[in-house]
Specification:
The chain is α+β, with helices and mostly antiparallel strands. It is about 40% helix and about 15% strand. The strands form 3 sheets. It has a 5-stranded antiparallel sheet with strand order 1-2-3-5-4, sandwiched between helices. Strand 8 (about 205) and strand 9 form a beta hairpin. Helix 7 (about 225-235) packs across helix 8. It is globular.
Length: about 325
C-alpha cells in the first residue's frame, strides 16, 4: 500500500490558492493552519473555509459519499450542514473537500439553550424524515444495533477499575440490570439515517445557545436512532439530549437506550485512556484528552426524571 503524503502548510496553501484564486501568481494566499496539532488532515483556511484531506482510500470514499449525503440531508434539518465550494483529489486517489466554515463554537465550549434543544429536536426529526432507501442508494451502510447487555458487561468491569483509581462510583452502573438492558434492546423496524458521530466537537453552538450547525457526516449510517441520542448526551448532557429526543417524538425506550449507551461508552473510553489502550478513530480522530473524557462522563451521568418514572408497556409505540 502506498504511503500517503503528509500535508504541509506550503502544500495546503498551493492547493487552496489554485482553488480560490484560479491559479493566482504563485504567491500569497490565505492563512492556513491545522485545526489542532494532532489533526494534520484538517486545516483552517483563512476565516471562511475549512479544508479536509482524506488520509487513505477508505476515508476518501466516505468523503465523496458525504458530499452527496449532505445535499440530501440539508432540506430536512433546521441547522446548517457544511457546503463544499470545491472538491477533488489532493494526492492520487485521496480526496479533499473545501467547505465553507459554519459559524459558532463547539458544544464543548458553549451550553445549549432551551431553544437550542428545539434545534436538536429538529435535527433528529429531520434525520428520521430522510427516506432510508435514498440514503442507502448513496452508499450509506446499514448497521445492526449494538447489544446493550454486552456493552453493560464491559462497562461494569471498566467501572470497577475506574473505582480503584478513584475516578468513578462503580455502584452507579448497577442501576442498569441485565433485565433492564434486555428491556432496552433496539426494536425491529426502527432503523433511520443517523449521523453516528455526534460529539461536542461536531455540534456547533452560538453564544445565544442556539445550535448553528452539525459537522462531519462521514460516519453516517442507517441504523439505531438511539446512537444519535447517545451522541447528544455526550455532547450536551443527558437532560438536554433526552428532552430534545422527546420533543422529536421518540418514546421512553429509545431515549433510555441512548442514555445507557452513552453512559457505558464513556465509562469504557475513560478506562481505556487511563490504561493506555485508547486508539484514534477513523481519519486520525482521537477519543479525546483525559479532561474531556472526564467531562463527557460527567455529562452523561447527569440524572434525568425519565429514568425514575418509566414503566414500559409491551405496546409502547415507537415513531
Amino acid at each position: 500500500m502506498t504511503q500517503a503524503p503528509t500535508p504541509t502548510a506550503d502544500g495546503v496553501r498551493r492547493l487552496v490558492r489554485s482553488l480560490l484564486d484560479e491559479g493566482g501568481d504563485g504567491t500569497g494566499g490565505p492563512d492556513v493552519r491545522p485545526v489542532t496539532e494532532d489533526r494534520t488532515h484538517t486545516w483552517w483556511i483563512g476565516r471562511g473555509h475549512v479544508l479536509r484531506l482524506a488520509p487513505d482510500r477508505e476515508a476518501s470514499a466516505r468523503r465523496r459519499r458525504e458530499l452527496r449525503l449532505r445535499d440530501v440531508v440539508r432540506p430536512h434539518v433546521p441547522v446548517a450542514v457544511p457546503a463544499s465550494v470545491a472538491h477533488g483529489d489532493w494526492a492520487p486517489g485521496l480526496a479533499y473537500t473545501l467547505d465553507t466554515r459554519v459559524p459558532g463554537g463547539t458544544a464543548d465550549e458553549h451550553d445549549v439553550s432551551a431553544v437550542g434543544e428545539a434545534d436538536l429536536a429538529g435535527l433528529l426529526s429531520g434525520l428520521r424524515a430522510v427516506p432510508v432507501r435514498q440514503a442507502e442508494a448513496l452508499g450509506v451502510p446499514r448497521t445492526a444495533p449494538r447489544s446493550l447487555e454486552a456493552l453493560r458487561r464491559m462497562a461494569v468491569h471498566a467501572a470497577e477499575r475506574l473505582a480503584a483509581a478513584d475516578e468513578f462510583d462503580a455502584a452507579r452502573l448497577l442501576q442498569l440490570t441485565p433485565p433492564g438492558a434486555a428491556q432496552l434492546a433496539a426494536q425491529p423496524g426502527t432503523a433511520v439515517l443517523t449521523h453516528h458521530g455526534l460529539t461536542g466537537a461536531h455540534v456547533l453552538v452560538g453564544d445565544d445557545g442556539r445550535v448553528r450547525g452539525v459537522l462531519d457526516w462521514t460516519a453516517a449510517v442507517v441504523g439505531d436512532p438511539a446512537e444519535d441520542i447517545a451522541g447528544l448526551a455526550v455532547a450536551v448532557g443527558s437532560p438536554a439530549a433526552v428532552r430534545a429526543a422527546t420533543l422529536a417524538g421518540y418514546g421512553a425506550r429509545p431515549c433510555l437506550r441512548g442514555l445507557w449507551l452513552a453512559r457505558c461508552d464513556t465509562v469504557v473510553r475513560l478506562t481505556d485512556r487511563l490504561e493506555g489502550r485508547a486508539e484514534g478513530r477513523a481519519e486520525g480522530r482521537a477519543e479525546g484528552s483525559l479532561p474531556l473524557l472526564r467531562t463527557r462522563l460527567r455529562r452523561v451521568w447527569e440524572p434525568i426524571l425519565l429514568e425514575r418514572v418509566t414503566d414500559f408497556a409491551e405496546d409502547d409505540p415507537e415513531p
